[in-house]
Every structure is written in structure tokens, then in C-alpha cells.
Amino acid sequence: MNNSSWIKTLMGQESAKNQLKNGKMPSSQTKAAAPRLLWRLAASMMIFQGVLLGTGEVAFGQQKNLTYGDLLKKIDAGQVSNVEIDTATQIAKVTLKGQKDTASKEVVLLEQNPELIEKIRSKGIALEVRRSADRSNAVSLAANLLLVLLLLVGLGTILRRSGNASGQALNFGKSKARFQMEAKTGVMFSDVAGIEEAKEELQEVVSFLKQQERFTVVGAKIPKGVLLVGPPGTGKTLLAKAIAGEAGVPFFSISGSEFVEMFVGVGASRVRDLFRKAKENAPCIIFIDEIDAVGRQRGTGIGGGNDEREQTLNQLLTEMDGFEGNTGIIIIAATNRPDVLDAALLRPGRFDRQVMVDLPSYQGRVGILQVHARNKKMSEEVSLEAVARRTPGFSGADLANLLNEAAILTARRRKEAITPLEIADAIDRITIGLSLTPLLDGKKKRLLAYHEIGHALLITLLKNSDPLNKVTIIPRSGGIGGFAQSVPDEDIIDSGLYTKGWLRDRLTVALGGRAAEAEVFGDAEVTNGASADIRMVANLAREMVTRYGMSELGPIALESPNTEVFLGRDWMDRSEYSEEVAVKIDRQVREMAVSCYEEARRILRENRVVVDRLVDLLLDQETIEGDEFRRLVAEYTELPAKQLAVSN
After folding, report:
1. Is residue 96 classed as helix, strand or coil in its secondary structure?
2. Residues tagged active-site
3. Is 21 exposed, middle or buried (0-12, 13-18, 19+ CB in 10 A)?
4. How does pLDDT run across 549-558, given as a tens digit for each residue?
């Protein structure tokens, strides 16, 4: 190893040592790197020792200015006056005639130099032989001492790091909750829209915290816990931030997953520490997001569940309503899976109230859109009421994402304000997918047009179906070649009540694409493009037979909606009917699907003229809006009263 590579190696060891000393290495890397670091330091010092021992030779070799051959030539020429030989270093100091002793030359000699001594004596040159002090032993001792010192320093560093790690291990039981003495979340109730019923119930919680005397004087007790339940994106966490902002009291926020670690007892310890801090700062709010991560039913699932999670839940139950009260502490938790929570967690005294944060209604969607449109440049042509009508079933997060996507499209198209076109494209992008390059003219495009017109025409002609919004053959991401989109009925979406006629028309519409392919191109030319439609038909028809009682089997519920293994249910599916009934169920599902398919083919066959006319127009325009589609259909057929009302 040369000097430069040795220096780089030593610098690398020092860098690793500094990282270890400064605590920049993770603990796992520290433990793995410590033995390697010590061995590398030891090897480096051994190399360093060898280099130090050879320093004299290297230095002298670099300072030489006469070779051994040159010395012999100068002796033969009679130019040498004095030679001094050091037997320890095998170096000769040569003084040339006419030069001072201080200007003597140095020559590295061979191990055996008989010819040199013979020449010096034959020429009568003054010769002096001496031996310099040997410092190699002292250098070796110093190098060894330095090596031992470095090893001790490295060992001390490792022990100190281990001590720090042990200290950190004692902090595992400390709560990781974020604490704010006066919660300044920047969110107030005025910033939350679309969930007015939930806001009214939670307004009482704020009143409890601000004006406790008004309630305690009549004997009312502050509710210990409020559970926010609702689908994802409906604003549960936003409500908790608004409560904290309105109340102005100490606010602890933590996720349910932060209680549980791989170490036994850590979760329960963190629960105790969290409530101890909360008691010191009462009255206060504790917000636990996604509580189902720690509050699932105990002793369920394959293997009986997670013991560490169950111990954490037991400690949480005790702290909420055990032998020791928690006066002034209100716990707010959020989940979208209340069906998997433990029954002991949901009883009064722990979570006294369950506030449903459901999907917003039409008025709620208008309010949410108004909140999120405050900081966006909207064109005067944009009607938030019209956007709300087109987005039933959207959550608050979906509506916020909708306006953000519209703003992105506006900036990409270099417009100054969001227009209705960007809003419509954003809705399609969220619900259907990203628009792709249109197909070229050909058989595939014509077949796709007939397929989508089959869906759209049945949507328009069936009296129980929702009105058509648009039909297009522009492909979308995710393998969607085109789509016929309807506008869901607001009343049906909000109530969740679906009639048998509406469900059967939905089956017929779903089979309209396959029916159009069969009527126009023949049974041998049908494609697999309707695979998703057929799968939906099979699932919906089975639910109508086994859950809704809408078949000849009568009003009997033969299957349960939830039989998941890991949600606290039975780990094996239990048959709820005999094999004879199973055969009848399969027969009813098949008869329902075949009946709807034949109905779809009959309607398309009777309206073949309008089908061909609409296909030609769709191939030309690639997209037909709902109003124009209904106008064209009305020229050839008599539309149901519901569809005519939409057109007018």
C-alpha cells in the first residue's frame, strides 16, 4: 500500500469514527459497524507502524543525489576525498575534493560492498565507519501505544452509544401524542361545510369545555367520549381540528397505530402516559385518529388476535372509564369501520355519543364547493349548484380534489379562470379516468360505438333508469374504451332505497352493450368488452335474490353482507342454506340475467334505425351530450315522461 492510499484509508476510518461519535449512524448500523471499525483501525495502525519504521529509508532514498555506480566512477577518477559509512542505515556520506564537509553527498549502499572498500583503500581515501543510534524500537513502541489508545477510545465510544440507546429504550413507553397548549389549528366551524348535523352535536362539546358551570348546575355530566363515524374523506379529522380551534383548550392528537410497537407493554404504557399528561392539563381534548387500529374486537380472527394490541385496548378501556375518573377530559376518536370495534369501547361511559359524518347532501355539496372555491379564480359561467347536482355520492375530499383538478387543467390550458369545461373534464377524470388519444376509424371503433350506444339508448328509453349525462368513445386510462354516463338520482342516493324496477333496469342497461354487439354483428362477433358489465350483473342479481328478496324464492335473506375473515368474523364461511336452495338461487340469478338480456335485445331490435343514426353521429363527434342525445331519440320514439322532463 502506497502513502496516498494509506492516507485515504485512515481518513475513511476517522470519518466513520466521527459519525459514530456524533450519533449520526442509526443504532442498528452502529452495532454492525463497530467491530469492523475497530479492525480497520487496528490494520491501519499496523500499516502506519510499518511506514514509520521505514520512514528513514524512504526519506533518505528521496534525498539521495549520488548513485552507487557514480560513487565508484568518482573514486576511480580521484575526485573523492573522504567517505563516511553508517552501517546501521547503509548510507555513505561522500565528500568530494574541493567541497566542504557540509556539502557532502549521500549514497545508498548495498548490503555487501567489498569492491567499494577495496577501491577506497587502494586510492588512499580517508574512510570512517560508524553506527548511528537505532530508533526503530522506540518508534515501534510509540506506534503500539497509539494503537492501544485508539482502540480504547473506540471501545469507550461504543459503550457510550450503548448507554444512550438504553436510555432511549426507557422512553418507548412515553406517549407520542402531539400536544398544543392552545390548539391553533387554523380551522374553525365556519371552515367546515356539508355536515351541519355533526357540527351541531359537536358544538355542544365546545360549550361543555367553555361553560362547564351551565351544565353541571343542573346535574349534567360532560360526555367522556365522542366517536366520529363515516366513510373516508367526509371530514372527521377536519371536525376534530375545528373543535380544537373553537374550544381553545389543550389538545392532544395521536393516531391509533402509534400506540402499538413490537415491544410488549409499550402500547399500554403510552396510554397511561397520555392520560397522565391529559389529567395535568384538564380540561382538554384527546383526539385519536383511526382508532380501529387499536380498538378492534378482542379474541377474534385466526389465532385469537394480537396480544399486544389487546393489552393496549384493555388499558384504554380502563383509562376511559375505570376506577379512577377523568374529569374534564373529552376523547374524540375517528373511524370508518365502526363494525370492527370492540363492544366494550362503544358502550356509554366510554364513547357516550356516536356522531355520523355521512356523505354530504346536495346542499352540503354546495357549501363544501363554496368553501374550497374561495381561493380559486372561477369564471362567472361556473355554477356551483350545477356542479353539486352532477356529483352525488362525492365526499368532501372528492369535491376538494375536483376543484383542484379543474384548477390544474386551467393552468395547463393557459386560461385565466376555471370554466365549466374544466369542471366537466375534472369530473370525468376523477370518476372515469384520464382521457387518451381517440381511436382511428375502423371496425374496432364502429363496434365500440354500437356498444356504447346500446348502453345509452337503454338508459334513455327505460322509464326507471337515471337520465343520461353523456356518451363517448374517447378512450380513458385503465383500459376503458368509452362509456355511457348517467346522472344518479339525488333522492335515491341520499335515501339508499332502490326499487325493484330501478334495479332490473340497471341490469338491462348493463347488458345493453353486449346486446347491441349481438344484434348488429351476430353472436359469433361479440367481444369480451362486456366482461365487467356481466360481472356486475351477476353480483347485483345475486344480491336481489339472496339479500333483497326480489325473486320467486320470496322475501328471505339467505346471505349476510359481511363474512370477511380478518374483521372479527367467523374464519370459515358458514352455509346458510341447503344445497337444494343453492341450486334454486343459481337458477333464479340466471333467469334474471337472461331475462334482462333478452329485454335489451328486443328494445334495440325495435329501434335499429335510431341506433344506426346515433352510431354515425357518435363516430363523427366522438361525444354526444345527454340533451342532444334525448332530442335525437325523441324524433324517432316516444320518450318516458321522466326523460322528457329532463330534456325540458
Report:
1. strand
2. 452
3. middle
4. 898 888 888 8
Helices first, then strands: H and E counts in the chain: 25, 13
pLDDT of residue 160: 76
- Residue ranges of the chain whose pLDDT lies below 70: 1-65, 100-103, 111, 132-136, 162-186, 260-265, 299-306, 322-327, 439-440, 493-495, 561-575, 641-648
Quick one: pLDDT at residue 641?
62
Does residue 283 have a cis bond before it (omega within 30 degrees)?
yes
User: Which backbone phi and psi does 294 adopt, to 5 degrees?
Assistant: -120, -15
Cα(301)–Cα(308) distance, rounded to whole angstroms? 15
On the CB side of 142, CA atoms within 13 Å amount to 10
For residue 401, the model assigns a pLDDT of 93
C-alpha 411/C-alpha 272 separation (Å) is 51
Contact, 364 vs 385, CB < 8 A? Answer: no
Express the helix, strand and coil content of the chain in percent, nearest 5 each: 55, 10, 35
Instruction: Say how many residues make up the chain.
Output: 648
Per DSSP (E only), the strands in 241-298 are 251-255, 284-289
* The pLDDT of residue 65: 67
What pLDDT score does 507 carry? Answer: 95
Q: Residue 485: helix, strand or coil by DSSP?
A: strand
Q: How far apart are CA 8 and CA 137, in angstroms?
A: 27
Strands 623-625 and 468-472: antiparallel
Q: In terms of pTM, does the model score above 0.70? A: no
* Residue in the structure block whose three cell numbers are 577495496: 118
Which backbone phi and psi does 318 adopt, to 5 degrees? Answer: -65, -40
3-state secondary structure 100-145: CHHHCEEEECCCCCHHHHHHHHHHCCEEEEECCCCCHHHHHHHHHH
Dump pLDDT digits (tens) for 184-243: 666 777 778 777 777 777 887 778 777 777 877 888 777 788 888 888 888 888 888 888
By DSSP bridging, strand 329-335 and strand 225-229 are parallel
494 close to 361: Cβ distance less than 8 angstroms: yes
Please tell me the distance from the alpha carbon of residue 83 to that of residue 135, in angstroms, as a whole number: 24
Contact 198, 356 (CB under 8 A): yes
Q: How far, in Å, CA of 509 to CA of 147, rounded?
A: 85
pLDDT at 492: 72
Phi, psi (rounded to 5 degrees) for 203: -60, -30
Q: How much is the pLDDT for 448?
A: 92
Point out which residues pair with 228 in neighbouring strands: 334, 355
Quick one: which H or E segment has residue 246? helix 236-247
Per DSSP, helices labelled H in 418-550 are 420-431, 443-461, 490-495, 500-510, 512-521, 531-546
- Strand 225-229 relative to strand 105-108, pairing: unpaired
Nearest by Cα to 587 from 557, 615, 553, 558: 553
Cell numbers describing residue 38: 475497530
| All three cell numbers of 486 | 348517467
Say if CB 234 and CB 356 are below 8 A apart.
no
Residues 6+ apart with CB under 8 A from 40: 9, 12, 13, 16
The H or E element containing residue 40 is helix 27-53
Cβ-proximal residues to 497 (8 Å cutoff; 6+ apart), any chain: none
Which residues lie below 8 Å from residue 510, measured CB to CB, with a gap of 6+? 455, 533, 534, 536, 537, 540
